[in-house]
Amino acid sequence: MVHSQRLILLMVGATGQEALRHFVLGLLLLLSLSAIAYYGYAIYAANKFFANSPVYQQTFHPPVSILRPICGIDSKTYENLASFCQQNYPEYQIIFGVQDPQDPSMEVVRQIIKDFSNLDIQVTASLHTLGANRKVSNLAHAATKARYDILLLADSDVRVESDYLSRVIQPLSDPAVRVVTCLCRSITQGWVTTLEALSTPTDFLPGVLVSTALEGIKFAMGQTIVIRRSALEEIGGFAAIADYLADDFHLGFLPTQAGYKVVLSDYLIDHVMPQSAIAVSIHRQTRWLVGIRASRPWGYVGLIFTHGTVTSLLFLLATGGSVLGWSLLGVTWIMRLAMAWFVGIRCLGDPVAQKLFWLVPLRDGMSFVLWGYSLIGNTVKWRDRQFRLTRGGKLIALTPNLPKQVKTIAG
After folding, report:
1. In this structure, is the dihedral angle defined by the CA atoms of residues 69, 73, 78 and 80, taken in order, positive or negative?
2. What global pTM score does this model have?
């Protein structure tokens, strides 16, 4: 009797283990097939976007106020800032927003003012903060000096050509459009930053193009955000996003909730990334992923369906190197590399993708690990401060803020 009971338990246990094994294999197969479909659709979406981008006559030239939040300095800061001062555009002003009047970037800004004395350039320096996001506070203070209805926001680490302003403004000629944002290419220094940047043209931006093809773009990206002042005021101004980590996301998302249209421009920004230590790079990527999880939880979970490089490899290992496993791996990796090449190299002409295309599978493995790691915890480090991220993406500072001080410097 006892032996019979043990035999039954062993049989039940074996049956349960077999069922679990089949479930895991089925899940990995489903995830790999989903990734293959995603890669194919991303190629379609990229081709559709770049082949059918509207051609504007570039006759719409309203005056523009350019707001550039800056903090700190690197070897390319002058070139990045100066590129916005060399626009072939009839009327615009530039306002640099810094938090600390003693910030090292002030020396570069003073040189910019001196070298481009013919332009309307101003600086606002203020330690007063609207919320946890210091960058948004810099933008808000800069906006107080903006003279025009159209505001262009651009991060300090981007560089543009002289036709940039005349091209990115054109979609606003449609009254329904209130926000314009842009794709980017990466210019990097050091192998750590270069490997980090490889995911942008081969992973992140294909996802942006897929989202645009499926439902239109409903967010913005910090490299460039063009927004009408009326739309910004309607969503509550900069104060409405001052406590959010993903401020750029909300500057696109909130206007769509108010019924306005966001347009993705085909102009390609150069994103200049300085050399970083490994720890800094990991913190930056983790902060970005945790921000996505907080702002778009279902979108974050859905990223599992795009990690075909890893899921097909796990399927191969789980099947003990079977013919089916090798076949699935081959098809998945071919489609993955085809998407990376088509979007990153052919469409975007990204120099990092051109240089390190062969490292895409390795970068995918790193991205998968970081994605899994970002599932845990809600604390992020941003510059010299620690924050707790709440549901929805709001920041709660875990370190004290700086005292208030305001200073305005006119160019």
Report:
1. negative
2. 0.88
